[in-house]
Structures are given as C-alpha cells and as structure tokens.
Design brief:
Chains A, B: It holds the Pfam family ADH_Fe_C. The structure is a homodimer. Chain A has 14 helices and 8 strands. Chain A folds into 2 domains: about 170 residues, Rossmann fold, CATH 3.40.50; about 200 residues, Dehydroquinate synthase-like, alpha domain. Helices cover about 45% and strands about 10% of the residues of chain A. At the A-B interface, strand 1, helix 7 and helix 8 of A face strand 1, helix 7 and helix 8 of B.
Chain lengths: ~400, ~400
C-alpha cells in the first residue's frame, strides 16, 4: 500500500536579511533598549574584520564580547558564557560566525533562562532532558554556510569529558534574524567551503533518502537542492573565485537544506549524523568529513530499506537511466562518493589513518548514547551501525 | 554581463497546521481570551459541514459569524464586516474558506484598526494609499487550495462600482496560523479544482518567467512546483478521486506557489495578473481562467524579453530538447496552453464569447489603474498590453 504523507506543522519566524552591504541594518533589527553580547569563535572574524565592522555598526550601544567558541562548541566553554550573561544582565545575543557559534549561542540563549542546570537540557546519559520553555532573543551574522543553524531552532553541543556530541532544540531557539551576506564567505579557506557543501548535501539526504510517502513536491525540492550543490560545488571550492552568484547560491542552499522546507510531511533518517558525531567526538575529524565517510557506506548497507528512493535519486539527481535497479543504486552511491572526493574529502576511515580498531569503540559510543534503534523506521540497530562503520574502513 | 541575485528579506511567521483530523487544535491556537468572528463565503462551508465543525470545536467561546464574502471579495461587503468587528469588539478573526475569504479577512483585520478610511489602504485612483501599520490577529481554515493567501500577507479586493480589482499587503497581515486539511478539498467541484491548479501554476510563472539572475536554487524550486502541478493536475480534477496524497500535494503546492519560497532574490513579473484582473472586473470571468487567457499570449508577445528563461522552461519543465530556441519556445507555449485546456479552461477570449470589442475597454482599465509600465523591467507599456490582449482573441 502506498504510504501517506505525514501530518506536519511548519513554523519558522526567523527574519532573513540576505545580500550585499546590509550590515548597517543590524542597528535597526536589534531593539534599541537591549544590552548586547556578541559571541564568536576563533580568530577569523577578527582577522578578516567582520567583528570590527559589527562593533562599528553597534557603536552607540552597550556591547560586550565573548570569544573562543570552538569548531565543535563545548558545554565547558558555553557555561562560562551563560555565567557572563547572567552576571552582566545581557538581554540580546548576537552570534557572529558559522554553525558552531550559532549553535553555541542558541544554547547560551536557552541556558541563561533555564530553570535549573543547563546540563538538564540534554538526555542520553548527560542530564535529565527537561524542555526549554524560554530563551533570550538572539540574532546571527553568518560567515560560514554549512549547518543551516541560522534558520532553524536546533543545535549540537560537545561534552569534552564525556566524549559526547548531543543535540537540542525548541520553539524558543529560532534566531530573531539572520544576516546572510555572501561576500563574507570570500575569505573562507577551501577546506571550510568544501565542508559546507558536504554538510548541506547530507542534510538534504537525511530528509530525502528514506521511503516514498507521495510527497512529490518535497521530493523535487530536495532533488533541486542536491542538483544545485552538485552544480556549484566545483566553483565554490575555488577559494579565489569570488563570483557573487556562486557564493549567494551556496549560502542560500545551505540555509534551505535545514530550514524545514524539505522535511515537511516526510520521514527523516539522521543516522549518518548520529554515526558521524561519534567519529568527531572520538577522533576530532571535521563534522562534514565524518558524513563523507558514513553516508556512502550507509547507502550501501541500507540499500534494501531505501531501495525506492535510491533508484529515484539515481535517476533524477544523477541522471542514471541505464541498468537494472541494483546497478543504478551502485552507480548513484559511486557518484556520491566521487562527489565528496572531488571536494577533497576522504570517504573511508583509512583516508584519515584509522583502521578496524575504531569499530568497537564507535559502536560502544552509540550504545552509551542510547542510539540503538535509529533511522527513519527505527530499525538501524547497533549491529547494522557496526556494518556501516565496517563497510567504511 | 551576468546579472546578480537581488538582495532580499524573508520573513513568514505563519504557523502551518497541515494534515488530517487537526480541526480540534483550533481551540488551542486561538488564545482563550479572544472574542472570535468567523468569516466565510457562500453556502459551501455550510452545506459541507465545515462551518458546523469549526463552531463545535469553539463551542466553549463567544463566537460570531459573518457570511457572504464573494468569490471576488468586494469592498462594499467587507466594510460591513469592519463595522461589525468595531461595534461588537471582536479581537480575533477566523477565515473559513478559500483565497477570497482569506483575502477579505485580511482586509477586515487591517481595516478594523486603520486610522481613517479603509479605502485609503489602496491607491490607483481609489484612495490615498497609506500604509497598514497594525491589524487584528487572524487565522484561517483553508477549504480551496489556489491563491496561497493562507501563507502570505497580501490580498486583492474588488470595488464593484469602480470596476477595479486592487491589491494590498503589509507585514501585519500574515495569518497567525493556517489549518490545511487536504480532506476538506474532497467536496470541491471540478471547476474549482482546475482553477486552483491554474492559479498556482501562474503564480509560479510570475516569479520564474523573467530573466536569469544566477538564482539556481530558486529556479529549480520553481521548476519543481511546475512539474508537480503538471504531474498531479489530471488526478486533482477528478472530483471523485479522493487519493489523499494527490490532494495533499495539491494543497501544499498551492501554498508554496506564493509563500515567498520562490521569489527570494529574483525579479518578478505579475503582468498576467494585472491583465487578468481587468478581465474579471469587466466580465466576471473566474480569476484563474483569465490567467489561462493571458499567460500563453503574454509569453508569445514577450518572447524576446523572456527568451533565456523561456528556453530553460521548455527544456527543464517540458523536456523539450529538439529544435532551435524559437522552436523550443513555441513548443513550450503550446504545451502550456494545452495543459490549461486539459483542465477544462478556454485560453482565448473567443472561448468565453468575447471578441475584439474587449481590447480597448481593457486597455482603458489598465490606464485608469496606473498599470502603464508593468512586468519585471517595467517595460510592458499599454501598447504591449494591447498586443497581448489582441493576441488572445
């Protein structure tokens, strides 16, 4: 029997301010009576002058700074920001950076108003997992297109001591606004540009590569995004290619990959992310590169469960029309792997100097975090995850 | 020189509640302290029981009713609703119906709080055109997918005496929520189903069929929507075909055709709508059918200005790959015309018993309403509009 489209809600109140020369508008979209804390990461927003430009726009206000949010933002760092916000009574947060800084800022926004220990926002053996019921308002200035965090309400936080990477979200943690200036990507190194493309690509796949439910429009939207990323990928990773439309399309595609447009009414997987997070937590490999390791292997191991959508993906996204279904699936998985490799990412553990010793450790991590029945049907057991890791050696 | 993607803002706070058996949730999403006025159109929401179901869900509250909003909602009727809202102090409006009822409700929401004469919300020789700065909150229960009004902030109002059909909009006239239950479309007659498909199709074309600005994702999204409407059109207009996914895809496609997803950063035309509105105002032909008359003719007359996108449309939406550019364009226009005709709509004035006598009268109307330099470049003069009307005889 044909499955039916799922019931859904869609609510996304974030105001997107997209384009060139719009930084001045920050002073209008942050209410005048707010005391603003600017949060950022390492040195790049300083080095390339973005932080100075933001401060110049807000110079008539009382503004504080909190730097040093990591590429995988840690609880240990963010709890310091929460303390600062409370002590100094900041009541508006401004994230200047990529997805890590934005995720971190979301956690600070929620944690500063959380009743009890912010640790308890999380479950999975970390805390009590109690819901977020309020958060400070915050905006973002995006410098690195990748995670889509600028237009959704979720985030992922790393717990250093516990070697865990866990998600959170709520209706209260949408950015009030996000300022997206494609020219801010002109200073990004190739590695981060490539990571952004792959991160967005796998976000789409998590929402698309499941089983059909007659969601014809959502499927075509997802295929649009995959085709666009494939089309622009080679030009995006040319560091010195400052073609505006290429970077604008990259930025808007990464936002659309995870702003709710693609996921309405369809099942979602997210197992590649679960398996990838454990790799980053244990070995510190870039998030996007862990996805490049996991996804091709997962598609291969889960080819029966995902059969119908894999054939559709082969035909519509990659234009593969010859061969039987299994041959189309093989060709599509190979194309996917080659696409990631063309962006400079290894797609096997061996490309990162890792061998079969990782499998038991990673599976143990999944078990510890309760990730024992994942994917769109909840049927990806630890044994299946073990096969996926093993298939990626 | 390649044109650049335009700067844009995106803000759409409407909460979509989509799916089966969700009517009960109305009682949660309308704040308990509000005095609610339900607005509706003719008899169909009564005849098919939707109005009774809504009233049953809200039975614990103080609820009023205002019926009789026309298929092309008139100022003359809506001003009575505004009077009622003020006299009885209603502070939440609930539209139950299609785009006409929702457009009308938006105008009532804005008009009830407007400083001065609600007529002055409009320009074009009707009023002073002063901005909307506040509006009553309102929600919608959509029964007829077509206009997209359920997830945007605009509306179109008819002035009977002045034979005018004019638009308005503001940041204050987004629905707070819209409840979209595809099963509510099961009672619609074929004519309205066909109109909905065509209306949504032309909405997409107004945002897509201009000139390229390197907006690769927005182009593919628009093509996705056109392909989806072409794919489901034949099944949608089978009145008795109550396949849930077909109707769900129809409903969500019509919403997406005009909720801002497609128009970000790209030029827009809307000349088919301007020319069509005058036909409805003078001859009372259904809005969607006026678009079916105007669009194929407009594409033909404007084939040079829209050359690049017409070729892209031919290739990607209709799969036309043989012939030179002009032949592809001819074939795509013919396919478009045939699609509308397959839905039961005439695509020439003669199909509606009208002849060349209409042209002068329609052009006069355009002039009276200031529509003398329209389209994406503002270069569609009255003379060009005359050619388009003439080409559609």
């Amino acid at each position: 029997m044909q499955k039916e489209m799922l019931n859904f809600d869609y609510y996304n109140p974030t105001h997107i301010i997209f384009g060139k020369n719009r930084l001045e508008e920050l002073n209008q979209v942050i209410p005048q009576d707010k005391k603003v804390l600017i949060l950022y990461g390492g040195g790049s927003v300083k080095r390339f002058g973005t932080l100075d430009k933001v401060k110049e726009v807000l110079k008539s206000r009382e503004v504080g700074e909190f730097g040093g949010i990591e590429a995988n933002p840690t609880y240990e760092t963010l709890i310091k920001a929460i303390k600062l916000v409370k002590e100094e009574n900041y009541d508006f947060l401004l994230a200047v950076g990529g997805g890590s800084v934005i995720d971190g800022t979301k956690f600070v926004a929620a944690g500063a108003l959380f009743d009890g220990e912010p640790m308890d926002i999380f479950g999975s053996g970390i805390g009590e997992k109690r819901p977020i019921t309020k958060a400070l308002p915050f905006g973002t200035v995006l410098t690195l297109p990748a995670t889509g965090s600028e237009m959704n309400s979720g985030g992922v936080i790393t717990f250093v001591e516990k070697k865990a990477k866990l998600g959170f979200g709520s209706a209260y943690t949408y950015p009030v606004f996000s300022l997206l200036d494609p020219e801010l990507t002109y200073t990004l190194p190739k590695r981060q540009l490539a990571n952004g493309i792959m991160d967005a690509y796998v976000h789409v796949m998590e929402q698309y590569m499941t089983y059909p439910v007659g969601a014809l429009l959502q499927d075509r939207y997802a295929e649009s995004l995959l085709q666009t990323l494939i089309e622009i990928g080679p030009a995006v990773i040319e560091e010195d290619n400052h073609d505006y439309n290429t970077r604008a399309t990259f930025m808007w595609s990464a936002t659309n990959a995870l702003n709710g447009t693609l996921s309405r009414g369809v099942p979602q997987d997210w197992a590649s992310h679960s398996l990838g997070h454990e790799i980053t937590a244990l070995y510190g490999i870039d998030h996007a590169r862990t996805l490049a390791i996991v996804l091709p292997s997962l598609l291969n191991v889960r080819r029966n469960e995902k059969h119908d959508k894999l054939v559709q993906y082969a035909e519509r996204v990659w234009g593969i029309t010859s061969g039987n279904d299994e041959e189309k699936i093989d060709a599509a998985i190979l194309k996917t792997r080659e696409f990631f490799e063309s962006l400079g990412a290894g797609t096997r553990f061996s490309d990162y100097g890792l061998g079969e010793e990782v499998v038991d450790l990673l599976v143990d991590q999944l078990e510890r975090h309760g990730l024992t029945n994942i994917s769109e049907r909840g049927d990806q057991t630890l044994e299946v995850s073990r096969q996926i890791y093993t298939n990626a050696l």
